[in-house]
Inverse folding.
């Protein structure tokens, strides 16, 4: 007997627009939060206990919000909109105040990537005014760190991930480009360490597992492409996963490194075992393209959730494979 298809544990409605981005903040066990950014310029802060929006932030002059995150160790929220701004918000003590902003000049859909270097000191990578360039600044000072522009003709930057390796090198950044290439950048040296052609179409999304030095990317076609960094920081293409339907909006690896989730243009969320890319579940609930997936950062593994945000203006929350499941 096959097990019954999973259903959401609950859904969140009232976002007032297509859901482009999701971000959990569940370190405070008393008030776990989910942030969502919509196509109508609204950021909702959802209280996962009451399952209602505890705050709605109106930003970016009504332009679509494509990325939200929180600065660790503060109450600050950071958001990126199609108005070419990255905004910093103070939400402490009931406020919804924009305290700073950075003009990107970017007209694309590439999401920012942020890295905490030390408490209160972050690096922010964002797409620049030239379609192929990535700019990195320090926050909160907004001091420019570098601009990364590839020598090769790879087209517009589509997605990126910034991290600090354990090797002692400076920060590294992997970016996916319009021609299907991945470039690995050494931020300190402002140089490309390696390059790989992962897809025949633009790289729509990627994510990276710092513990395994392994990443995965998706595009508008049917394949997910996984890759690793070897000891010399060379990108090595590995396994491909062929999907039933084309188009992936986002990929997310759970914090324990056991699960991978994909947001599909076919309205479905797919869950894989991250170790062997074994298909585990197809989550069917949404009636339009799924544009974002995120795993919660609950301290207690039994409380972990998977959230999916869709063009149908709904967020579904799922509790799956939380205790001891074989997810090879």
């Amino acid at each position: 007997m096959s097990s019954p298809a999973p259903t959401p544990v609950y859904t969140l409605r009232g976002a007032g627009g297509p859901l482009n981005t999701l971000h959990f903040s569940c370190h405070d066990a008393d008030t776990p939060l989910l942030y969502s950014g919509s196509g109508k310029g609204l950021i909702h802060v959802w209280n996962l206990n009451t399952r209602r929006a505890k705050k709605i932030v109106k930003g970016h002059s009504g332009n679509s919000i494509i990325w939200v995150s929180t600065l660790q160790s503060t109450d600050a929220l950071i958001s990126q909109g199609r108005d070419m701004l990255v905004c910093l918000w103070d939400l402490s003590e009931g406020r919804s105040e924009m305290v700073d902003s950075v003009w990107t000049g970017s007209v694309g859909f590439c999401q920012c990537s942020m890295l905490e270097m030390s408490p209160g000191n972050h690096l922010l990578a964002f797409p620049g005014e030239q379609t192929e360039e990535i700019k990195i600044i320090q926050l909160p000072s907004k001091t420019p760190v570098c601009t990364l522009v590839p020598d090769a003709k790879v087209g517009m930057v589509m997605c990126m991930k910034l991290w600090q390796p354990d090797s002692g090198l400076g920060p590294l950044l992997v970016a996916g480009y319009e021609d299907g290439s991945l470039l690995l950048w050494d931020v300190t040296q402002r140089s490309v360490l390696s390059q790989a052609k992962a897809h025949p179409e633009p790289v729509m999304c990627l994510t990276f597992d710092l513990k395994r030095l392994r990443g995965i990317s998706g595009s508008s076609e049917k394949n997910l492409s996984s890759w690793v960094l070897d000891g010399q920081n060379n990108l090595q293409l590995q396994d491909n996963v062929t999907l039933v339907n084309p188009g992936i909006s986002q990929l997310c690896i759970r914090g324990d490194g056991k699960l991978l989730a994909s947001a599909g243009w076919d309205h479905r969320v797919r869950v894989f075992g991250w170790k062997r890319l074994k298909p585990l579940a197809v989550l069917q609930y949404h009636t339009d393209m799924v544009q974002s997936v995120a795993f919660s950062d609950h301290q207690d593994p039994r409380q972990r959730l998977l959230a999916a945000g869709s063009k149908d203006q709904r967020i579904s929350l799922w509790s799956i494979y939380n205790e001891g499941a074989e997810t090879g």
The chain has two domains: 8-103+253-272+281-319, 110-242. The first strand starts at residue 10 and ends at 12. The two ends are 21 Å apart (CA to CA). The chain has a mean pLDDT of 93.
